[in-house]
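This part of the workshop introduces the protein records we will be handling. Getting from the letters to the C-alpha cells is the skill we practise here. An example says more than a description, so a record of this kind follows:
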Amino acid sequence: MSIVEYRGFAGVRLEAEVIGSADDPAVLLVHGAGQTRGVWAGVAEALEQAGRRVISLDLRGHGGSEWPADGRYDFGAMVEDLRAVLAQLGTRPVVVASTLGGWIASAALERDAALLASGLVLVDVPLDFDREVAQRIGARLREAAALAPGQADWDPRLLDAFDSEAAAERLAGAPAAIALPTLYVRGALSELVSPADAAAFVAGLPDGELAEVEDRSLVVTDRGDALGGWLIDFLERRAPRASPEYREGSDARTFRDALGCFATGVTVVTAMCPDGTPIGLTANSFTSVSLDPPLLLVCIANSAGSAPYLREAGRFAVNVLQIGQQPTSNRFAGKGEDRFAATPWIKGEFGTPVLTGSLSSFECARHAVHDGGDHFLLVGRVLKAIFEPRRDPLLYFRGKYRKLHFA
C-alpha cells in the first residue's frame, strides 16, 4: 500500500491510497459526501485479490485531501478535481463512484470519456433532485459532524457550500453523453432511487447495465461484499485483465485493434486525374522514409476508389490535418459527396491539390510504388513542404480521434 498525491482544480492537494501491482488494470474509487476512502476498504481488498490496481481517492475536504482554506466546494471545482486526477494517472481506469462521487464522476466523464476512463460504475447515485430526501441526508450529516465537533474526517463547510439542486440540473443530460461501458448499482430498498428511475437511467446510457442488491438501501456501507461481486463480474466482462491476442489466421479485427494502439496523425492524400479532376482520400498510414533524398510514403488500400489514379499519378500531395479539420477527415473517408466542393483547397506549385489550413502539406513526385498485400506503398520524393507552427495535430488512436494533452 502507498499514499499518492495529485493536484486538483486550482492546485488543491488530493490524496489517494493505492494497492495492487502497477501492471494490473486500474480501478479508481470515489466516495460520497461525509465519507473518506476508508469506506471502500473491503471492496478495494476484493478488487486487489481479483488482480486490479486500486486507487482510493479522498475528495477535497475529506480524509487526507486538502480542506481548502476558502471553503470552495462547488460542484464545478469537484468535477475538475476528478478530471485532473484522471489526466495524471497515465492509464484509463474504470471509475467506481458512490452518491456524491457518482454525480462528480458522471459530470467529469460527460466530455472526453474515452480519453479519461475505460468504464464507469455508479453506486447508490441519486438520479433526480428530491429536496425532502436531500434535507434528510443533510440533517444526518450535520448531526454526525455535531457529535464530534472539530474531529470529523470531512469538512462540514461542504454542506453549506454545495448546491445539490444546481448539480442535479447540470447532470440532466449527462447519461446520453457517457460513451463508456457503465454499470448502475442500487440497493433494492434505496430511498434515493426508485426501480423505475434506475431502469430509465440505464436505458438512456449508450452502453448501460443495471444491478440491484437485495434487502439493502445503501450498497457501499451495507453490502460491500455483494458490491465486490458485482464489480468483479462487470470488470471481467467489460474490462478483462487478459490482453486480447491475435495469431496469424485468426480474427482480423483483433489484428486491426492491435495496430490501432499505435497513435498516428491523420492525412489526406490528393492528386489530379488526367482530366484535371482533383481526387483524395483519408489515410493515417504515413511516415517519413529518408532525409537525403527527401522521401515519404503513404499506404493506400487497393479497394479505395481513388487507388487506380494515385497508383499512376506522377505527382501527389500529403496534407497533414490539424485539430480543426476533423470534418475534412470524415469527408475524405466517406463516399457520396463532392469532397473538394466543401473543402478549401488550391492548386499547389507542382500541380497537386493542397488543402488550405492544414498543419502541413507535402507536394511530391512519385518515387516508387510497392505492392503490400491489400494495400500499396506509394513513396514520394518531396518537392515542397509547408507547415503551420501554431496549430495542433488531429490524432487518431484506437479507432477514435484524439487531441494532444499537455501535462
